[in-house]
Specification:
six-stranded antiparallel β-barrel, 14% helix, globular, binds arginine, 3 helices, Thrombin, subunit H, signal, hydrolase, 263 residues, secreted, alpha+beta, protease, single chain
């Protein structure tokens, strides 16, 4: 979960000049960072977002987020599941605080990782977990493959997680949320070059930075209109100007997710 940013260092040097030149493309026309006390944002609860799951190790130590899409199915990032087994992972629902003991803990009976997944910056960063125990929480709806219009540049998207509140900082004990505008493909390409695979990814963030997902938020939801439309995947640092967060473009994988949800 924490290694992806290393891969971005060399690209950053090359892309920085291009990004500065193309800065106007990076955000929505009205995208000025709204400082909010994730990076930026505010605290919230799993009561407000009941589908928000902690993905933890066997000791219930959180390392990624996930989204409940049916009583026994959780959508997360493939990169969160690298090296994991059904025995090494737990899913915790209904727990707002990392140090809480409340909510529902489930074991995982199956881990489906997109068969083409190799690295988050190559796309296909999606996984579906099958739970051993049903979660008594309202699941989220997710986009269908035809709903590609949800990613129109400038659309407001919501991010959620327990990740670090600054790059290299510490995680948040309480669940946090923020909103960020969807960035156009051209804007994201100008930031990330060929690492941005438009068919599989979508970017969101302010051109001036300041609000973003960060380490530990991976696997969690990008919601558009309250519907799961993306999965926190990667980025250069966190909340840096000119480097929006990169999310899995869920419309591309919706059919495969549905196959897993119904399996
Ligand atoms: N890979 C990170 C994780 O494992 C998520 C990084 C998101 N970065 C960003 N700048 N939006 O949690």
């Amino acid at each position: 979960m924490f290694g992806l940013n290393r891969a971005r260092q060399t690209a950053a040097v090359v892309a920085a000049t291009a990004a500065a030149a193309a800065g106007a493309l990076l955000g929505a026309p009205t995208a000025t960072a709204a400082p909010q006390p994730i990076v930026g944002g505010t605290t919230t609860t799993t009561t407000a977002y009941p589908f928000m799951m902690q993905i933890t190790d066997a000791s219930q130590s959180q390392f990624c987020g996930g989204t409940l899409v049916s009583a026994r199915k959780v959508v997360t990032a493939a990169h969160c599941m690298v090296g994991e087994t059904t025995g090494s992972v737990r899913v915790v629902g209904g727990r707002t605080y990392l140090n809480g003991t409340d909510g529902t803990v489930s074991r995982v009976s199956k881990i489906w990782i997109h068969p083409s997944y190799t690295d988050a910056s190559d796309g296909d960063d999606v996984a579906v977990l099958t739970l051993s125990t049903s979660m008594p929480y309202t699941p989220a709806s997710y986009v269908s493959s035809s709903q590609t219009g949800v990613y129109a540049a400038g659309t407001t998207a919501r991010i959620l997680g327990w990740g670090t509140t600054s790059s290299g900082g510490s995680t948040s004990n309480q669940l946090r949320t923020a909103t960020v505008p969807v960035v156009s493909d051209a804007g994201c390409r100008s930031s990330y070059g060929s690492d941005y695979v438009a068919s599989d990814m979508v970017c969101a963030g302010y051109s001036s930075g300041g609000v973003d997902t960060c380490q530990g938020d991976s696997g969690g939801p990008l919601l558009i209109g309250g519907v799961l439309a993306g999965i926190t995947s990667w980025g250069e640092g966190c909340a840096e100007a000119g480097y929006p967060g990169v999310y899995t473009r869920l419309t591309t994988f919706s059919g495969q997710v549905t196959t897993q949800v119904n399996s």
